[in-house]
Design a protein that fits this description.
about 250 residues; mainly alpha; Arc Repressor Mutant, subunit A; Four Helix Bundle (Hemerythrin (Met), subunit A); 2 domains; two-stranded antiparallel ribbon; 5 strands
């Protein structure tokens, strides 16, 4: 058995499924697929030299979490990305994760604080290395751990869903994953707005200031959205130009 992060909690997977999960996430992170592309189970299995069963299981998990979409019996797809959907997703994230940060402030334990601080250090290290997959994984763990610490199963559940959906916009439009220039390197965590805002959120949680934690989380997600909004094609340009995302 292997362990990987799926949603806000560690999911135990069989080794083949963990390999399939990592490989599919690698493809999404590297933009091997474009928004609207269909993921063909048999083609991925052949490419990875694996049986179809672990591929199918991982796809089902990613559909349940909102990262992929199922279209009847036509298979699963990378969702189409539109300005309207992006605005709705990040608005939902700001609301849900703001409340998660507020609740986490009053529910967190000393162990939770240690876990959050450890993630912050790992995040800065991976950012400085330019390790896209590892950085994305730590960022996911950070946000979903705060939702977990809130001890509200509904906040945690819906935060997972909107976080994974927002991840598609981040992978395709955030400068860390998709530089404006081919040789653009973002490696100094002290200059990373995201890293600094994560510090603010954790410090507020440690200080027991729920209002500040909520406000800092709102500001963090609003900033993330604003950074990408200018790089998002207009709604009329999104459909039918998938290859331009690569």
């Amino acid at each position: 058995m292997a362990q990987t992060w799926g949603g806000g909690h560690i999911v135990k997977m069989k080794t083949a499924e963990a390999t399939a999960y990592k490989s599919i996430m690698d493809m999404i992170l590297s933009r091997s697929f474009a928004p609207g592309d269909r993921l063909v189970e048999t083609e991925i299995a052949e490419k990875l030299h694996m049986s179809r069963t672990p591929i199918r299981n991982v796809m089902r998990m990613l559909i349940a979490e909102g990262l992929l979409e199922a279209k009847g019996n036509k298979g699963c797809y990378i969702p189409q990305l539109t300005p309207e959907d992006m605005a709705a997703v990040f608005k939902a994230r700001a609301f849900l994760e703001g409340k998660a940060a507020l609740e986490a402030t009053y529910c967190r334990t000393d162990e939770d604080i240690i876990r959050l601080q450890s993630l912050l250090e790992s995040e800065k290290q991976k950012y400085s290395e330019g390790a896209l997959e590892e950085y994305a994984e730590i960022n996911r763990q950070f946000h979903l751990l705060i939702a977990e610490i809130s001890h509200n199963e509904y906040i945690e559940k819906f935060t997972r869903q909107v976080f994974w959906r927002s991840g598609l916009y981040i992978f395709y439009f955030d400068r860390f994953y998709s530089p404006l220039k081919p040789n653009e390197i973002l490696r100094d965590p002290s200059k990373s707005v995201s890293c600094n805002q994560h510090d603010q959120i954790v410090n507020a949680i440690i200080a027991g200031d729920g209002n500040a934690a909520e406000n800092f989380m709102h500001a963090h997600i609003d900033t993330t959205y604003a950074k990408m909004a200018g790089r998002m094609p207009k709604s009329s340009e999104v459909f039918g130009i998938q290859n331009k995302f690569i």
